[in-house]
């Protein structure tokens, strides 16, 4: 790698829209404040990879989704708070765009706390407000299955979208300032969120259906609808969403192909990155967070303008953060 794109990468604001790493800290005892050879993400490796902001999903595993979801999500959120409390000179739990900019200036990594699936709300708007008070700033409405708010992508046969409670959740997230994430949501649910939300939304970790016909990926029309509302789509490194037929062969070239396809469909203001690190297996070269500069390298080599690269690396997500969170 040459100094030119390394300089661009580390000067840019780099935001990863999705990871599941906080679950490793809770369930495997892998403290994210220390460098590890396990998993994909910890603070040292985020710093080495030039990642300034990491969205952390408080995912509720399937055994807890029907019983104990709220407690399990709170335990994961607690782990984020413990990280921030133990390492205030390295990590901050961001609640708005200013927190992110201050962290960047101070050389700290900013975390955005999110839920992956509305199961943890236990069909209560009051619980949503309590999560917000604890720092929740991103809500993935579904993880594949059905919950009280909506149908996930695994329930698409029903053509079910948002429930009445789901509409209330979208409206309250708009009022509070919580970013809505439609990755994992059924097509009908995505359409409903776009119809109800008055704020931009994100699909934090979903690729292009035109390149890989996987149910978790988005059609060009869906991406255009998200972009029309000012939202962004995060290209993910998950091998199965890059090459559904033979995931083990997925490479960084597939990641770049998805970025370039999305740029051609929705333009430079609506494409972002959402690795899904520690959530699944990745494209071959993306061993962990230290590999992020490889994406900048490839984009520079393929002739993309530095302004476009900066937008994809983080400025587009930062715009949505600023719009929704303030």
Descriptive overview:
The chain is of the alpha/beta class and about 325 residues long. The protein has a single domain (about 5-325), classed as Metal-dependent hydrolases (TIM Barrel, Alpha-Beta Barrel). The protein contains 14 helices and 9 strands. The strands form 2 sheets. Strands 1, 2, 3, 4, 5 and 6 form a 6-stranded parallel beta sheet that branches. Strands 7-8-9 form a 3-stranded parallel beta sheet. Strand 3 (about 90-95), helix 6 (about 95-105) and strand 4 (about 110-115) form a beta-alpha-beta unit. The longest helix has 20 residues, at about 305-325. The protein is globular, with a radius of gyration of 18 Å.
Roughly how much helix do the residues carry, as a percent range?
40-55%
Beta percentage is 5-15%
Poorly predicted ranges? none
The major β-sheet equals: 6 strands, parallel
Number of helices: 14
Class computed from helices, strands and strand pairing: alpha/beta
Tell me how many strands there are.
9
Into how many domains do the coordinates divide?
1
CATH superfamily: Metal-dependent hydrolases
Shape: globular
Write down the Rg: 18 Å
CATH class: Alpha Beta
**SSE order, as H and E?**
HEHHEHHEHEHEHEHEHEHHEHH
The appropriate CATH architecture is: Alpha-Beta Barrel
Q: Any idea of the CATH topology?
A: TIM Barrel
Distance between the ends: 36 Å
Mean pLDDT: 97
Key terms for this structure?
326 residues, alpha/beta, TIM Barrel, six-stranded parallel sheet, three-stranded parallel sheet, 14 helices, globular
In short:
The protein is of the alpha/beta class. It has helices at 3-11, 22-27, 43-48, 62-65, 69-86, 97-105, 125-133, 164-176, 187-196, 220-228, 239-242, 252-266, 292-301, 306-325; strands spanning 15-16, 53-59, 91-93, 109-116, 136-140, 179-181, 202-203, 232-235, 271-273.
């Amino acid at each position: 790698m040459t100094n030119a794109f390394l300089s661009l990468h580390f000067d840019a604001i780099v935001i990863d829209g999705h990871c599941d790493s906080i679950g490793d800290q809770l369930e495997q005892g892998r403290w994210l404040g220390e460098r590890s050879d396990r998993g994909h993400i910890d603070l040292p490796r985020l710093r080495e990879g030039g990642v300034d902001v990491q969205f952390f999903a408080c995912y509720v595993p399937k055994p807890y989704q029907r019983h104990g979801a709220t407690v399990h999500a709170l335990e994961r959120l607690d782990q984020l708070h413990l990280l921030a409390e133990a390492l205030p000179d390295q990590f901050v739990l961001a609640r708005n765009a200013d927190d992110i900019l201050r962290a960047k200036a101070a050389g700290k990594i900013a975390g955005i706390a999110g839920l992956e699936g509305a199961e943890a709300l236990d069909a209560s708007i009051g619980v949503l407000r309590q999560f917000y008070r604890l720092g929740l700033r991103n809500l993935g409405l579904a993880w594949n299955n059905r919950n009280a708010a909506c149908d996930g992508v695994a329930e698409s046969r029903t053509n079910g979208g948002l429930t009445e409670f789901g509409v209330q959740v979208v409206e309250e997230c708009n009022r509070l300032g919580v970013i809505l994430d439609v990755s994992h949501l059924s097509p009908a649910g995505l359409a409903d969120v776009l119809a109800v939300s008055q704020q931009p939304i994100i699909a934090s970790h979903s690729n292009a259906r035109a390149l890989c016909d996987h149910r978790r990926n988005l059609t060009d029309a869906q991406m255009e609808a998200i972009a029309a509302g000012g939202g962004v789509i995060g290209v993910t490194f998950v091998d199965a969403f890059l090459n559904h037929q033979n995931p083990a062969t997925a490479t960084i070239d597939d990641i770049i192909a998805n970025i370039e396809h999305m740029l051609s469909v929705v333009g430079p203001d609506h494409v972002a990155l959402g690795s899904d690190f520690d959530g699944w297996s990745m494209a071959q070269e993306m061993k962990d967070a230290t590999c992020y500069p490889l994406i900048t390298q490839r984009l520079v080599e393929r002739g993309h303008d530095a302004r476009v690269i900066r937008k994809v690396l983080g400025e587009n997500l930062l715009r949505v953060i600023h719009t929704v969170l303030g």
